[in-house]
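Summary for the steering committee. One of the milestones for this cycle was to obtain a three-dimensional model of the protein with HAX bound, which we needed before selecting residues for the alanine scan. The sequence and ligand used are listed below.
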Amino acid sequence: MGYIKQRFAAKAIPMAAEIREFLKQNENTELGTYTIGQVYGGMKSIKALVTETSLLDPEEGIRFRGYTIPELREKLPHLESCTEPLPEGLFHLLLLDEIPNFQDAQHIANVWARRAIVPLHVFKAIDRLPRDMHPMTQFSIGIMAMQSESHFAKAYRAGLNKKEYWDPMYEDAMTLIARLPRIAAYIYRRSYKKGKHIEPNPELDWSANFAHMLGYNQPDFYSYMRLFLTIHADHEGGNVSAHTTHLVGSTLSDAYLSFASGMNGLAGPLHGLANQEVIRWILDMKKKLGKTALTKEAIENYIRQTLADGKVVPGYGHAVLRKTDPRFLAQMEFAKKHCPDDELVNIVWNVYEVAPKILGETGKIKNPWPNVDAHSGSLLVHYGLVEYDFYTVLFGVSRALGVLASLIWDRALGMGIERPKSVTTQWLKDYVASKTVKKVEPVIS
Ligand code: HAX
């Protein structure tokens, strides 16, 4: 058994026993109340999932295994040439609940490098798709095409003891993560660079090699990719991409099927696709305002117009967060250091100065602050990656680290099939009519 896998087993097997014991004592303990508004409103804030890898606080933002984004940027191992963390180290933290040393991160990088060869039939499947098909759809199909290699599916068919589920899930997750940059870069080069593909460079770390295969070799872009792939990895379990991966996995679908489902959720404009929408919105604003100077007043008017047109201002708002997203701030700090004079980056900062007040004034938008997607596009454009339909694929490659670490844990902890109860509106009306109902404010935490 591999070194990381062995360490995972040493943690996960006792934790599964601990949870069984905890459940024995507390199975019937009540955990809060929820309202009819929450049931119609996307179940927000209802505590109904267990995800060990990260926890989101509405005021403070995400903590990965207890560490904030600024702490991770300080504590996770990095290369001598770069101050940004290696996502390989973040994966170690998410999976094993331990900040790794440089050798540990390197070990994971080596495992992924060894497994990065994508079977030919996957490229062939992608090649049959229209070049102008959205990159997220191609990405999802590419992931699905790899399912024929699933260890989990084969082991399950051969007859697998429940206690062993996590083992082939671990193998699939590691292989899938290892291959994602190659698949993503393949889609990028076929869609936008006339199919001129670039071979991987085994000397480079996971992020830099990905940037290299996309065709970008500036050291600062390598740094941004390390930061990007670290901060987009996980956002606790209730967001659509994480929840979908977990939900589909709960049927014992393998990592490929589960993760592809999660990616289909990430491809929605209210979720990960918002990163491309932000740049589209800013470029539209520039075009529509034409020669008018992009003053803060002009931006304010454009925001008001977006709202009046019944559209969302992309990159703003969040279902849980109630402050500026620390992932936005991390990118802002990066941009201040590397490209403070970039025009698009400055527009993003000017929008940040005026948008929260206007969104707040509507009285209905619960979080008027920017989320992670408000900043990423401007940095990608700065480094020359201008094909914004591709941005969500980058997000997807990173999201694999969090949701697949969680999927391995799900199988190790024996998480059951998900099946919440649904009711009809008539059922709810009858329920309300038949009781002396208590009205409570939903608790967001
Ligand atoms: N612009 C305009 N209206 C907005 C808004 C925004 N940025 N954010 C919320 N609203 C609206 C909602 O559409 C909703 O309107 P209705 O009552 O007419 O339906 C109302 O304000 C209340 O919504 P909310 O409770 O504040 O927010 P939700 O939890 O329902 O939705 C969203 C959270 C992130 C989907 C929402 O804020 C939004 O659409 N933002 C823009 C898209 C975006 O940036 N998405 C990325 C989010 C982060 C992420 O997942 N990244 O991957």
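Key point for the committee: Residues 44, 239, 270-272, 274, 307, 312-319, 364-367, 371-373 surround HAX (CB under 6 Å).
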